[in-house]
């Protein structure tokens, strides 16, 4: 299967560099480019990409709002958004993840990791590295629940094993790594993850991780 990619960045030189990397792969094709969020929306409608590589800070419409309109709540289009930024983890990236992005990478990521992330996201999974989750916790520790509050009512719908799986997802572990940690099969882990997403009404693992932090299920220093 060929994965159709749309490049969204306000710097033409970066778009050219990404295009060269991606078009060297037989299963990836760059179907278009956009220099801001509004152009991205137009291109998504016209070109129907599978994955949108989205910069955050752009003129006219930023990547957060564009992500919300492409992949946010109530949007059922096929395009997945993979956020790329030079700014490391900041509040804009967190907002993009909340808005429906399926992953987050820095622009200086090695080429092979960028290519793999696109494949992972196109396959319907999420790209959230453990290093990103650690920075998320560290940066937003002061904004997270103290632990004294009652947990959200939705968490009571999860079994103990599902809670355990959610904590490991929030740490950035893959299904295979969770299976090894819990001494179960990868198929069993996939089933538990599916139950967690359904019960909490979450789109993917990225949103599950953010939910785990915001609900206080995962605490700073727990990684």
From TrEMBL:
- Which species? Kitasatospora indigofera
Would the keyword Cytoplasm be found if you checked this record's keyword annotation? Answer: no
Identify residues that carry 4-aspartylphosphate. 55
**Name of the protein in question:** DNA-binding response regulator
What keyword terms does UniProt attach to this protein? Answer: DNA-binding, Phosphoprotein, Transcription, Transcription regulation
Q: Coiled-coil intervals in this record?
A: none
Please name the InterPro entries in this protein's record. CheY-like_superfamily, NreC/VraR/RcsB-like_REC, Sig_transdc_resp-reg_C-effctor, Sig_transdc_resp-reg_receiver, Tscrpt_reg_LuxR_C, WalR-like
CDD domains registered for this protein in UniProt: LuxR_C_like (cd06170), REC_NarL-like (cd17535)
Q: Which residues form the HTH luxR-type domain?
A: 151-216
Any single GO molecular-function term of the entry would be: DNA binding
Domain of life of the organism encoding this protein: Bacteria
Would I find Magnesium among this entry's keywords? no
Q: Which residues form the Response regulatory domain?
A: 4-122
Name a single GO biological process: regulation of DNA-templated transcription
């Amino acid at each position: 299967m060929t994965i159709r990619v749309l490049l969204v960045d306000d710097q033409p030189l970066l778009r050219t560099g990404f295009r060269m990397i991606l078009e060297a792969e037989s299963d990836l094709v760059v179907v278009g480019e956009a220099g801001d969020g509004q152009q991205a929306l137009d291109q998504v409608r016209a070109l129907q990409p599978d994955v949108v590589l989205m910069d955050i800070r752009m003129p006219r419409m930023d990547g957060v709002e564009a992500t919300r309109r492409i992949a946010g709540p109530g949007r059922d289009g096929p395009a997945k958004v993979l956020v790329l930024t030079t700014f490391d983890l900041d509040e804009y990236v967190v907002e993009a993840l909340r808005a429906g992005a399926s992953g987050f990478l820095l622009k200086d990521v090695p080429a092979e990791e960028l290519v793999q992330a696109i494949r992972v996201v196109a396959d319907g999974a999420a790209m959230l590295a453990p290093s990103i989750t650690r920075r998320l916790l560290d940066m937003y520790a002061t904004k997270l629940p103290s632990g004294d509050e009652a947990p959200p009512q939705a968490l009571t719908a999860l079994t103990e094993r599902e809670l355990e799986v959610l904590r490991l997802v929030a740490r950035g572990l893959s299904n295979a790594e969770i299976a090894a940690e819990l001494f179960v099969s990868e198929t069993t882990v996939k089933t538990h993850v599916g139950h967690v997403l359904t019960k909490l009404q979450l789109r993917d693992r990225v949103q599950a991780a953010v939910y785990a932090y915001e609900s206080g299920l995962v605490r700073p220093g727990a990684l």
